[in-house]
Amino acid sequence: MGAAVCYGTNPLGALNLYAEGMNTPSVLFWRFGMAWVIIACVCAFKATTGRESLRAGRRQLLTLLSLGLLFILSSATLYASFHHMPAGVASTILFTYPVMTAAIMALFFREKLRWSTVGSIALSLAGVLMLYWGDADGALSAVGVALVLVSALTYALYIVLVDKSPLPMSPFKINFYVLFCCALGMVAFALLFGQPLMMPPTPRAWLWVSWLAVVPAIMALVMMVYAAKYLGGTPTAILGALEPTTAVVIGVFVFGEPFTPRLLVGIVLILVAVTLVVARK
Questions:
Q1: N or C: which end of the chain has fewer CB within 10 A?
Q2: How crowded is residue 85: how many other Cβ atoms within 10 Å of its Cβ?
Q3: Structural domain count, the chain
């Protein structure tokens, strides 16, 4: 629940930095880079006190690289979607990832696929459809919806990989490697697509970069790893119900985004869908 609330604050930092004139690769680079520096300091302290070494085997490094690539793709597509639709709507569509997680666990790890999971898939699709046609000016951007669904799928794969991968290490060590991959990935993305990395232009921008590094990066990722390891992939995803709620509240009350009855119906359908996944005896 803590991870969900923290991750749901992504729009708060991202939209304020966009208003400062920063582009998406720059926002994500500073978010990941600053978070990595903080995590590196924690890991260095643990290493010097003999609590945990930073060494990792080849198979572990491959898994950590895969986690980094998945999180880069999930974050980049989510942040890019904020340019095409209200952030609260984008974060609500993102909440289809628990259903995707349950489906992946059933298809590839033989978790029993209950009628509730099938029903939740249908309800979540209906909810996304309501959101798609839900803004005041007509249909939402198809590009924006596609970006969020890619973000949801890659985030679901990230949770499943954390749950199922043999990584006998602390969440801090896992995220030391993941965030390093993410920061380097954003440098490569900026070079590949010709979008130069920008310094935060004002003290206010540095404040929001720090917020993104600490709250929806370090705090959310560390708590999510603990949750996935101790609860499993599907329950961790289900407890993310507070994520779209947080994002919608921020979008409506901070940024003045529209909140129509149709959006309300879409949100309720998605929340009911993921509730069905966990509503067992």
A1: C
A2: 23
A3: 1
CA distance 205 to 17: 6
Q: Say which range, 42-56, 152-166, 267-281, has the weakest mean pLDDT.
A: 267-281
Q: Read off the tokens for 62.
A: 């491959």
Burial of 123 (0-12, 13-18, 19+ CB in 10 A): buried
**At what angle are helices 58-81 and 142-164 packed, to 10 degrees?**
160
The C-alpha angle with vertex 88 and arms to 87 and 89, in degrees rounded to 5, equals 90
Which two structure tokens, joined as six digits, stand for 234?
A: 């599907």
| Token couple for 52 | 């945990």
The whole-angstrom separation of Cα 113 and Cα 121 is: 11
Q: What is the pLDDT of residues 58-93, one digit of tens each?
A: 899 999 999 999 999 999 999 999 999 887 778 778
Burial class (CB within 10 angstroms; exposed 0-12, middle 13-18, buried 19+) of 126 = middle
Bridge partners (DSSP) of residue 138 are: 135
What percent of the chain has pLDDT above 90? 41
Helices 115-132 + 87-94 axis angle, to 10: 160
The domain of 210 spans 2-278
Dig out the tokens for 211 from the structure.
């917020």
DSSP state of 86: -
Structure-token pair, residue 42: 């924690």
The encoded tokens of residue 79 equal: 């942040």
In DSSP terms, which residues pair with 135 in a beta bridge? Answer: 138
pTM, rounded to two decimals: 0.81
Closest CA to 68 of 176, 188, 212: 176
